[in-house]
Design a protein that fits this description.
single chain; 396 residues; alpha+beta; Butyryl-CoA Dehydrogenase, subunit A, domain 2; Butyryl-CoA Dehydrogenase, subunit A, domain 3; 4-stranded mixed β-sheet; 10 strands; 44% helix
């Protein structure tokens, strides 16, 4: 297997890396972008919005979107290189990421020309920020069990219900929302896909505070919310087909997180950090756990490359998306557990110390890693997908 860039790809990598080195300010850099995939406060949000606008002006936003919709029509490998370089530079996840990676491609596939013209440019420019209204208190991994209703009132739908775990809803201008429009239809039918202005009367957002203090999740309530008919995406009552498109983009991007930098930092700490009377790295069980984490990270990387190879051959996405999501999220949990073993009480501190300057990073990891085994489809759901679609096992 050849891991080297082609001359064309090497030049693209050099160009983007040079642009980031010149333009990315230090105060926007983050230790791990996934820890702040939603801005922690309004001030940070506005800084990142300005950053997205700067990237947009330079032609680095919506890279793989078709040119006619404001993108660059970049190849699949250019998008992969972009992602690698962007996170290497420790750049933050953009405020418009949900719109760019999930809704935008869905609208390009399913939306009317009027919808594309209205929404796509403002997604790229970050003039409008989107959130995803899918999960409900009784319909998370079993998304087709949703109960939020949209009643046809002629010129508009009237929406009532509740969503939960809605990332970034407190900052969002719009929400792409799954609703039940035919309560008598079979489970995966009678669902529709709506675009909802978050400023519409009847929309209420309440934050959910995590153990680590992050406030990026929310409950969202809809009480007699009026949604115009032109905000329906795809066929009425066949929104499950539309949302399957969105979920493919979500799963495809989940779990591909590079854990190598975290493991390398833990290796540094193990060599420096005194455990009893000597550095922890001298203890065999510490070395063994670090080695196993490095092996797991390499296996994850190779699995991701296997998926990339399928795509480059023009083949449809395989089961790698679910494998990456399952293994990547559970590897993150194992890394968090090991950091607690290595650092002991330092892994509970919210402030830097002389001994462990990045202690807050590991405290957030210990308290927050478990969420990734739930978000975007639980580990149990991913195992079912792999068992049924890859191993051919009967449904449970």
């Amino acid at each position: 297997m050849d891991f080297a860039d082609s001359p064309e790809h090497a030049e693209f990598r050099r160009e983007f890396r040079a642009w980031l080195d010149t333009n990315l300010p230090d105060d926007l850099k983050v230790e791990d972008a996934q820890d702040q995939r939603v801005s922690p406060d309004r001030e940070t949000l506005e800084k990142r919005r300005a950053w997205q606008k700067k990237m947009h002006a330079a032609g680095w936003v919506g890279l793989s979107w078709p040119k006619e919709y404001g993108g660059r029509g970049a190849s699949f490998m250019q998008q992969v290189i972009f992602d690698e370089e962007y996170f290497r530079a420790r750049a933050p996840i953009l405020p418009g990421t949900v719109g760019m990676s999930l809704l935008g491609p869905t609208l390009i596939h399913w939306g009317t020309e009027a919808q594309k013209k209205r929404y796509l440019p403002k997604i790229l420019s970050c003039d409008e920020i989107w959130c995803q209204g899918y999960s409900e208190p009784g319909a998370g991994s079993d998304l087709a069990g949703l109960r939020t209703r949209a009643v046809d009132k002629g010129a508009h739908f009237l929406v009532n219900g509740q969503k939960v775990w809605t990332s970034g809803a407190h900052f969002a201008d719009w929400c792409f929302l799954l609703v039940r429009t035919d309560p008598d239809a079979p489970k995966h039918h009678g669902i529709s896909y709506l675009l909802v202005d978050m400023k519409t009367p009847g929309v209420t957002v309440r934050p959910l505070v995590l153990l680590n203090g992050h406030r990026h999740f929310n409950e969202v309530f809809f009480e007699d919310v009026v949604v115009p008919k032109e905000n329906l995406v795809g066929p009425l009552n066949e929104g499950w087909k539309v949302t399957t498109t969105t979920l493919m983009f979500e799963r495809g991007g989940a779990g591909g997180r590079d854990h190598a930098a975290q493991i390398a930092r833990l290796l540094e700490l193990a060599k420096q950090f005194p455990n009893r009377q000597e550095p922890a790295f001298r203890e065999s069980h510490i070395r063994q756990q670090l080695a196993q984490l490095a092996i797991d990270a390499k296996a994850l990387q190779v699995t991701r490359l296997r998926g990339l190879t399928r795509r480059l051959r023009g083949e449809p996405p395989g089961p790698e998306g679910s494998i990456l999501k399952l293994f990547g999220s559970e590897l993150a949990t194992r890394i968090a557990d090991f950091s607690a073993t290595l650092l002991g009480p330092y892994a509970t501190l919210e402030t830097p110390t002389e001994t462990v300057p990045d202690a807050p990073r590991w405290a957030h990891r210990v308290l927050g890693a478990r969420q990734y085994t739930i978000a975007g489809g639980t580990s149990e759901i991913q195992r079912n997908i792999i068992g049924e679609r890859v191993l051919g096992l009967p449904k449970g």
